[in-house]
Structures are given as structure tokens and as C-alpha cells.
Design a protein that fits this description.
This is Chorismate dehydratase. The protein is of the alpha/beta class. The chain is about 45% helix and about 20% strand. Helix 5 crosses helix 8 and helix 11 crosses helix 12.
Length: about 280
């Protein structure tokens, strides 16, 4: 017998998702909601196992378990070019690094596989990859380049004086002309069946938070300066460069990413994007 009465929403605390969460108030929704904070890799796994009903997951995690989910059509973390928080730090040159060893952060499947797609599809390279904790200097002791994401990448970019920094969002756009989507908002299909009206209210509240944050990013900017560091100018630029929509242009970029991932054997099936629409899966 099913006793769960609350919709379990995953929450990650990376700054790149702040705009969608910042003005989201679950208490005013007239829906039973439980917020579950987690790092992205934990959240991806909990969604796949059915312990969380909806929330932001990495684009790659959606691809792996796509048959279980629908995607919300107006919510993502995407970039058309520079993303400023998916950064490859390189000792000498990208070409040399692609012939050597690349240290990968343990915290993002989307970015790791984007790195592998870029190396293989665009440069015909197959570097050696090692997975290490996100500490730039320790990574560089063992590798020719290091991939960092999120707030780790941002902090390292501020203090870095030794390495060339390559933005993977910019590299993807240079080679494909497409958007790159790093995170999507997904909901498990059984949750749609069980709580259709509640999920509609939750989606509207997330979208409202996004629009308020875009109209006035200053509270987020000041919060980021206080909690992470950096300057107001840096964070204004950072939030303005990211895009939180998931319309046709973002979907086309993500389809290409999944096509390449499938061709390279990084994912074992072709991925079809299924979109949620009011009370149904479209």
C-alpha cells in the first residue's frame, strides 16, 4: 500500500541553479512538499531509484534513465557559449593535454562526458582520464589538465595564475553552433500520475522564481558575494550569461549531445526527450 503523501523535491546548492530556487516557497503552494538537499550525484541517483520525485538533475543523468522521466519545458541550466563554471585548466596547450592525461572532477557526469565528446568528436583524441577529488593543485600533480565544475571551478578560476582556462560551454558552441544544457528539471512519471495538480502548481512556482530572479538578480548577486566570495561585477556577469529556459534551441543542443554520447558508447541507448505538459506527458 502506498503511504507517501508529500512530493519529494531534490535541491542542489550550486549557484548555477539559484535563480530557479531563490524565490521558490514550498510553504505557499497548498501542496504537500518535502525539500531534500543533496549534491548533484546523490540527487541523480535518488531520482533514478525513486527516492525523490522531481528536481534538477544533470542532463546526462536524465539520458541514462530517460524512460522514467518527463522534462519541464521551461526550466534548465543552459548556456549559448561560455558557462563560466565548467572549466578545463590546462598546463601547456589543449592539444598537448589531449595527448596526455586529463583529471576529471568526480561531481558531474554531464561535464565529464562533454569533455570526452569534445576530445573524441572534435579533436580525434583519446586522452587518459583519471577521476580525482576537485582540488586543482592535486589534480595537476597527476595530469596535464583538470576539469572542474560549479563553485569549485569558479573559485579556482579566481586564484589561478598558472594555467590556461578553457570554457567547455564555449568550446561546444564553437564546434557545433548549439546551446549546451547542463541540468534539466525532471519529474518521475509515476509522480505525474499521482499528483498532477500539485506538480502543475510546483512548476508554476519554479517558473515564477526564475522570472523574478532574472528581472532582479541583485539579491542573488549579494548572496553569492557573501557566501562564496568574488565581486558583485563577477556575479552579475555570471548570472546574466546563464539561461534557465528549455525551449526548442536548448532541446536541439541537448539532442546533439545525446546523439554523440550514444555514438561514442557513453550511453547505451538513443535518448528521446519527453516533455511534461499540464497533467500529461507530451
Amino acid at each position: 500500500m502506498h503511504t507517501q503523501s508529500k512530493i519529494r523535491i531534490g535541491r542542489i546548492d550550486y549557484t548555477n541553479v539559484w535563480p530557479i530556487f531563490y524565490h521558490f516557497r514550498p510553504t505557499g503552494l497548498h501542496a504537500g512538499v518535502e525539500m531534500i538537499p543533496a549534491v548533484p550525484s546523490t540527487l541523480n541517483r535518488a531520482m533514478a531509484e525513486g527516492r525523490i520525485d522531481m528536481g534538477p538533475i544533470s542532463a546526462f543523468a536524465y539520458g541514462v534513465s530517460s524512460s522514467q522521466y518527463a522534462l519541464f519545458p521551461n526550466l534548465s541550466v543552459s548556456a549559448y557559449g561560455r558557462v563560466n563554471s565548467i572549466l578545463l585548466f590546462v598546463k601547456r596547450s589543449l592539444q598537448e593535454a589531449l595527448q596526455g592525461t586529463i583529471a576529471l572532477t568526480t561531481s558531474s557526469a554531464t561535464s565529464i562526458n562533454l569533455m570526452k565528446i569534445i576530445a573524441s568528436k572534435f579533436y580525434g583524441a583519446s586522452p587518459r582520464y583519471v577521476s580525482l577529488d576537485p582540488d586543482l593543485e592535486q589534480m595537476m600533480e597527476q595530469a596535464d589538465a583538470a576539469l572542474l565544475i560549479g563553485d569549485h571551478a569558479i573559485r579556482a578560476s579566481w586564484s589561478n595564475t598558472a594555467y590556461e582556462v578553457i570554457d567547455l560551454g564555449e568550446l561546444w558552441h564553437k564546434w557545433t553552433g548549439h546551446w549546451m544544457t547542463f541540468a534539466v528539471w525532471a519529474v518521475r512519471k509515476e509522480a505525474i500520475q499521482r499528483y498532477p495538480a500539485d506538480i502543475e502548481r510546483i512548476v508554476q512556482a519554479f517558473e515564477a522564481s526564475k522570472h523574478i530572479s532574472i528581472r532582479n538578480a541583485e539579491p542573488l548577486v549579494q548572496d553569492a558575494v557573501r557566501s562564496i566570495g568574488g565581486t558583485t561585477m563577477y556575479w552579475r556577469h555570471y548570472f546574466s550569461q546563464l539561461n534557465y529556459d528549455f525551449g526548442r534551441p536548448q532541446q536541439e543542443g541537448l539532442r546533439l549531445y545525446f546523439q554523440y554520447a550514444y555514438e561514442l558508447g557513453l550511453i547505451d541507448h538513443e535518448v528521446h526527450l519527453e516533455l511534461w505538459s499540464e497533467n500529461t506527458v507530451g
